[in-house]
Amino acid sequence: MSIDTQTARKVAHLARIRVAEDELPALAGEFNAILGFIEQLQEVDVDGVEPMTSVTPQRLTRRADVVTDGDQQDKVLANAPDAREGFFAVPKVVE
Amino acid sequence: MPELSQLKIAEAREALRKGEVTSVELTEACLAEINAAGALNAFVHDTPDLALEQARAADARPDCGALNGIPLGIKDLFCTKGVASQAASKILDGFKPEYESTVSRNLLEAGAVMLGKLNMDEFAMGSSNETSVYGDAVNPWTVGDRRLTPGGSSGGSAAAVAADLCLGATGTDTGGSIRQPAAFTGITGIKPTYGRCSRWGIVAFASSLDQAGPMTKDVRDAAILLQAMCGHDPKDSTSADRPVPDFEAMLTGDIRGKTIGIPREYHMEGMPDEIAALWAEGRAMLEDAGARLVDISLPHTQYALPTYYVIAPAEASSNLARYDGVRFGHRAALDEGDGIAEMYEKTRAEGFGPEVKRRVMVGTYVLSAGFYDAYYNRARKVRALIKRDFEAVFAEGVDAILTPTTPSAAFGLGEMAEADPVAMYLNDVFTVTVNLAGLPGISVPAGLNAQGLPLGLQLIGRPWEEGDLLNTAYALEQAAGFVAKPARWW
Fold it and tell me: Per-residue pLDDT for B63 more than 70?
């Protein structure tokens, strides 16, 4: 498995990280080094092994489906780069 | 009494109880040391006014908590109410949480004083504290004029404790980020069993691996600080609802009859002689203390690092999706006509450093359609096998496992700059298995190498048996008798 510039561009877009066109070859090279390293997992016999979901065998605890928190709009918005009239403000999403 | 900032937590606790010292005096001594230690770049957000206010409050209510009046440093990964908490990342520039992480709240409720926030690798991704937006933290230990890394990701915590800028510090450990820096700086650090410490309010890196833990001047202090940090928290669904024993009371130093395993797979090819020699000495020390040493096998060890470098980036790519320039932190300046996609892409390109971007993108790749089974699911299966390896040896009666903490002593800052990212990842070769299996692991300083740099030994315990593990570490600490301190140059 080898990653080319095209794949690197696609992954960067999926991750929503802008990468300049001239940096893509170096990025593809780094991906290949890392993927080459993890490639050795292919040699492990994992037949019949369940993929681990939780390291401690525990059921996630449940609680009553009731409101336990809220009514703190000012705190929620306090760190927003752009908040207006009680909302997060973002560039136009719908034309 | 030694200089106040050099006190261990247990010593300061005793002096406070006897009225020989006040929390304000302790805190002022630490603040003075922090001011004089700018060259270490360990503390990155100082909170002297808050610290003195907390110290005065502690003095006014003597002996109300286990840590009453004890000045500590807090890793920048912990959200602290009203105090900058940015995980050493530009993308959280200016972020001041409206809430307190459960672990730091537990410490404050036990009476502790927070001196400030500590340097670290960006989002805890790194083994040298060189990926921090604040710049490198520097190891107080040196070889001549060569400046060394304190390790990572909890490099600021390690440097601060080793240089006596505080009495103890919090760290977090996803692949070795408490234990490796502890080993590089001659201090003690324990990562408890997954679920022991609440992850609520700690900036998430890889949620199935992250655990908080203490970094301290000795094993007793580690027991005291861990006690105060851990406990059940309904706000973290993976927090364990089980009693926390009195760890300090379990420090008897008596390990007669305990069975300690030496895993043959940790004899890595090319292991430096000084590391192999230290490991052999550790074995002899535990044997002399009455433990039974047995050779064991953990056959999937060699696959731990590649497993980690699938699972951790996968979880990181998901966790770090929240940094989108909308709710907190940095947002890129936009050009005319830029829409929401440009805002995300430019914000994340500007806000994340190179290592974080690399890991987010690797994680995105291994989770993407067509590769999910080949990489991510396979890694989760190998992880199950790695855990099974440990379960098998514990079932045979092994109480703890002894290994080196790191494959080398601290290396020079900048020395790995040209290396492949994978070369840096190898730092975690002995520690990462412990996170994958969710076990407790502790690093204890055990000797100096030929250049006079500290080296650590790691003990790995059974799940939930931190008390027993700390006691074994206590016996090792007594046998090793490590008392060296870095010569002050800062």
Answer: no
From chain B residues 384-423, the ones with a CB under 8 A of any chain A CB are 384-385, 387, 420-422
Confidence of residue B2 (pLDDT cuts 50, 70, 90): low
Residue A53 contacts B where some CB pair is shorter than 8 Å: yes
> For position A1, what pLDDT does the model report?
55
The half-sphere exposure of B137 on its side-chain side, counting CA atoms within 13 A, is 38
Catalytically annotated residue among B23, B157, B177, B198: B177
Tell me if chain B has a CB within 8 Å of the CB of A49: yes
By C-alpha distance, the chain B residue nearest A54 is B208
Q: What does the domain layout of chain A look like in residue ranges?
A: 5-43
Tokens 């074994």 — which residue? B472
| CATH code for position B30 | 3.90.1300.10
User: Above 80 in pLDDT, residue A95?
Assistant: no
Question: How many structural domains compose chain B?
Answer: 1
**Residue B154 tokens, joined:** 């909890």
User: Which comes out higher in pLDDT, residue B424 or B22?
Assistant: B22
Question: pLDDT value at position A3?
Answer: 87
The domain in which residue B452 lies consists of 12-255+439-480
Q: Within an 8 Å CB–CB cutoff, is residue B98 touching chain A?
A: yes
CB spacing of B382 vs A18 below 8 angstroms: no
| Test the B interface: residue of A39, A43, A44, A72 with most B CBs within 10 Å | A44
Note every long-range contact of A2-8, with CB atoms under 8 Å and residues 24 or more positions apart, other chains counting.
A2/A32, A3/A28, A3/A31, A3/A32, A3/A35, A3/B365, A4/A28, A7/A31, A7/B365, A8/B361
pLDDT tens-digit profile of B243-265? 999 999 999 999 999 999 999 99
B131 assigned to some structural domain = yes
pLDDT at B1 over 60: no
